[in-house]
Write a structure and sequence with these properties.
single chain, two-stranded antiparallel sheet, mainly alpha, globular, 13 helices, 2 domains
Amino acid sequence: MARKREAAMPEPEPRKGDLLPAVDPTGDLLDAGALFSSAIPVLGGAISSVLSGWSQERKWQRVREVLEQLDRELRNTKTSIREDYVRSDEFEDLLDHTLRRVATERHEAKRRLYAAFLAGAITSPGEPYHEQLRFLRTLEELQPDHMRIIHAMLQEPSGEAARGLSGTISQSLQRRLSNMPQERIADLYGQLTDELKLVVGGGFNTMMTAHGAEDLRNRFTRYGERLVAYIRAAEKEGRT
């Protein structure tokens, strides 16, 4: 007699309002976790933590935060919204790329940058599509320590240091980031100049006037100035 075929388990239905597909913890995944936990007990806690971290709810919460910030920024803007652009396939694709990054981004400050990026794309949609994607990749590569360097560069020159005879960019950043190793500052600054193209290259250890070494707000490239604008918009929104 032929064996009765087991009915296939139905796929979980997505919840109303979810922007990302529902996560189905399959039996294979759970079996693999149990196998490693029993074979190598010391990994049990780490594996459980990672598997529980694959939570749709956590990803959805990140996306919701960014969409709520985007809504606030658009309501507060005095710039008219290009509705034809928002309805276009190009914007829908850009929104998809952005929200996928948001869902996996752990740092709140960077998530605020993504919201500012979307607000800028909606209110000033002049950048070509692939240039927008390039900027998204730049945002994705930004580390929290990159942000610390950028914030240090945006500080106004301190009166005493700026009145000196001479100085270097390296010395100014070391003074403002005293808890960060000198080698780390140099490496991050090099990444901002050579890899991310956000800061004008050269001059890091070059002796210059004290005011020139202290006032680093004009050291950003045109590409970097766009990021600075998003940072200021995100920080303004964070204070409201």
